[in-house]
Amino acid sequence: MVNLIVACFVISFVFLTVSCARIYHRVPKENREFMDPLSPGLKLIWPLVRLLAFYVSENLSVDYLERVSKKLQVSGLSYIMTAEQYFAIRILSTLFSLGLTLICSAMLDAYVPQYLLLAAVFGYFLPVMTLNDLRKKRQGLIVKSLPVYLDYLTMSIEAGLNMTGALSQAVERGPAGPLRIEFEKVIRDMRAGMSRAQAFRNMADRVQVTEVNSLVSALAQAERTGASLGQTLRIQSDQRRIERFQRAEKKALEAPVKLVFPLIVFIFPVTFMILAFPIAMKFMYEL
User: For the chain, what is the domain count?
Assistant: First the structure.
């Protein structure tokens, strides 16, 4: 009887392994030659991501996939994963949160359905929060480095170069970051035959930063009216530098307000305890 059970278990395991292998081999191979490299964490789960993206995410609506693709583009992840793969990551995040909650509940011998529901919701929306953080970080880096690139563009234009040559000089000497990548895309678009205004407009659509939109509008207006391109860039550079100083000043003024909570909760109680301890001990000994 025991041998029969073991044989059935082995046969079932073999069939399960073969079935999983066939299911995975149906997934088309991915060509990542022109894609950005995956992080170590994504490499670990990427086979499951491809599997879910092929069998689950392809059934999603086109409108939803287009919205997700736009968010990935703004966050700088469009060359790492597709919208289908991003939804697969959300599914894996939900399953991981549920599994971790079940393990913790089993260790504590306390199963609470509300905790499982909260874990599922948290796991499902965790990639969304991560994507928003990446978008804000990327946009912050673009705004921070924009005045430097505008200075390089202004000097190059006033030295007699055209916009393509000025962009090449700015990309070559400017700081590394997402803005350099975006300017490289602009150069490729212009060399491929796209107009300068359309290339910059596409960059503004990709980054969705107010400062970049202002720059693109100023360049388009200068091109239509025949205004001096160097003077337009110099005005934009001065304006962006003033705005950067104002943002730094705003953060400096916000610092005291943000310090109120940790002062009240952490620092003031400890200070009062240190001051009150000698006084309390003195009263105790005098009594």
Answer: 1
